[in-house]
Amino acid sequence: MKMKVGLGQFSVAKEWQENLRICQEYMRQASEQQVDLLVFPEGILARDIADPDLVRRAAQPLNGPFMTELLSFSRDFTMTVFMTVHVPSDTQDGKVWNIHLAICQGEIISQYKKLHLYDAFSMKESTNVIPGSEVPPLVEVAGFKFGMMTCYDLRFPELSRRLVLDGADALILPAAWVKGPLKEHHWDTLATARALENTCYMIAIGESGPRNIGLSKVIDPLGVVTCSACEQDELVVTEIKKERIAYARQILPALENRCFSKPTLMTE
């Protein structure tokens, strides 16, 4: 069993209308290549490297114009699309959620509020964003089960292990991985580690542009990169295969050999 996966890497603009146009064009291109699952980067509503608070001001509800138009457009395609958007919360301080969404043919089929906020490397995501409090659900597409993660989640192996023990064949990670000393090395190392230690596919997409590294990639259960993007905007496509997962878990039975139980949230 196999399926086609696409990664639509781009630099998020300041205006949601431009980002919508880019998403629609990638969806057209992916459909022409018979892609079953397409992934966009993190926070695709709006971005301005000179104005980090824009994510709060530009946030839209899930029934706002961006998602309404994207969902309507998606009705013409059979592919499932993953992305994250910032959504207003009901808190008095005006902070927002960073929500990872899966959509298919006009419907939101799953959502996950980012658990680990990026309060590191002199940045503080929690200034504008509220952390989630629930383990992400699994999403089934074309016979594969996918675990949802977001950006900084990559640095916390407990979440990926939990999702795989829940049944995930692959992990999907939209990110806006910021440039900096050794950051590209961290991205490559951590993404490969999450695939290898869990003998699963890692589908990791990074935003491109002046602030972020791009370098989107799909890594197979034995650590082999099956497709990758550069630092610029582009769509890359590859296949993932159930047989490859089974083979990896046969020769490397790390999940069976583990001595620790399933990770749980501190609040569970």
User: Care to count the β-strands?
Assistant: 13
CATH superfamily: Carbon-nitrogen hydrolase
Order of helices and strands: EHEHHEEEEEEHEHEEEEHH
User: Which regions have little confidence, pLDDT < 50, spanning 5+ residues?
Assistant: none
The radius of gyration is: 17 Å
CATH class categorisation: Alpha Beta
Defining key terms:
about 270 residues, alpha/beta, Nitrilase/N-carbamoyl-D-aminoacid amidohydrolase, 7-stranded mixed sheet, 6-stranded mixed sheet, 7 helices, 13 strands, about 25% helix, C-N_Hydrolase, C-N_Hydrolase_sf
Q: How would you portray this structure in words?
A:
This is Deaminated glutathione amidase. The chain has 268 residues and is an alpha/beta fold. It has a single domain (2-257), classed as Carbon-nitrogen hydrolase (Nitrilase/N-carbamoyl-D-aminoacid amidohydrolase), CATH 3.60.110.10. It has helices at residues 16-32, 54-57, 65-74, 157-165, 183-198, 242-251, 254-257; strands at residues 2-9, 37-39, 80-88, 96-104, 107-113, 129-130, 138-141, 144-148, 170-175, 201-206, 217-219, 225-228, 234-241. The strands form 2 sheets. Strands 1, 2, 3, 4, 5, 6 and 13 form a 7-stranded mixed sheet that branches. The longest helix is centred in the first third of the chain and has 17 residues, at 16-32. The N and C termini lie far apart (35 Å).
Which helices and strands occur, and which strands form pairs?
Elements: E1 2-9, H1 16-32, E2 37-39, H2 54-57, H3 65-74, E3 80-88, E4 96-104, E5 107-113, E6 129-130, E7 138-141, E8 144-148, H4 157-165, E9 170-175, H5 183-198, E10 201-206, E11 217-219, E12 225-228, E13 234-241, H6 242-251, H7 254-257
Parallel strand pairs: 1-2, 2-3, 4-6, 8-9, 9-10
Antiparallel strand pairs: 1-13, 3-4, 4-5, 7-8, 10-11, 11-12
Helix pairs in contact: 1-3
